[in-house]
Design brief:
This protein has a single domain, classed as Immunoglobulin-like (Sandwich), CATH 2.60.40.1890. By secondary structure, the chain is mostly beta strands. Helix content is 14%, strand content 46%. The chain starts with a helix and ends in a 16-residue tail after the last strand. The relative contact order is 0.24. The strands form 2 sheets. Strands 1, 2, 4, 5, 7 and 8 form a 6-stranded antiparallel β-sheet that branches. A 4-stranded antiparallel β-sheet has the order 6-3-9-10.
Length: 157
């Protein structure tokens, strides 16, 4: 094998390995989804996203077939002190070596126009897309009964 062939084969192998290495930098834990009531038209997913890599990454989108639209949302307080959910088009930065919480009362994945009600213990397929790590596919359990206290999913940020 010539030096050029060896070099090209090495570059191809490295290029194929990079997505796997980048993907392993993102770890998602403690994910759950919920909606309010059987007739709810919207729901949300919450989770801990850990960036175990050496460079910052950004969650840029989420998708799922359980809703007509899926967006990244956060809560903002307007000038009248009223909390409103807003779409975060630029996504969420996940700093290198840190954890970003998607939690009730804060950043979250929003499902709008649910195709069917969320049922306790069902699984919601969710695809998260990151700038660096690419696609991470999840099966998020529905937990309609979860009561968060002071930690992940609480209303305090």
């Amino acid at each position: 094998m010539s030096l050029r062939s060896t070099l090209l084969a090495s570059l191809a192998a490295a290029a194929l390995a990079l997505p796997a290495l980048a993907e392993s930098a993102i770890k998602v834990d403690d994910a759950y989804a919920r909606s309010v009531g059987k007739s709810a038209k919207a729901g949300a997913a919450f989770m801990m996203i850990q960036n175990q890599g050496d460079t910052d990454d950004r969650l840029i989108s989420a998708s799922s077939d359980v809703a007509a639209r899926v967006e990244l949302h956060t809560h903002m307080i307007d000038e009248n002190g009223v909390a409103k959910m807003v779409h975060v088009e630029e996504g969420f930065v996940i700093p290198a070596g840190e954890t970003h919480m998607l939690q009730r009362g804060g950043d979250h994945v929003m499902f709008m126009g649910l195709t069917a009600p969320f049922e306790q213990d069902a699984k919601v397929p969710v695809i998260l897309t990151f700038e660096q790590a690419g696609v991470v596919e999840l099966e998020v359990p529905v937990d309609l009964e979860r009561q968060d206290k002071g930690g992940h999913g609480s209303h305090s940020n």
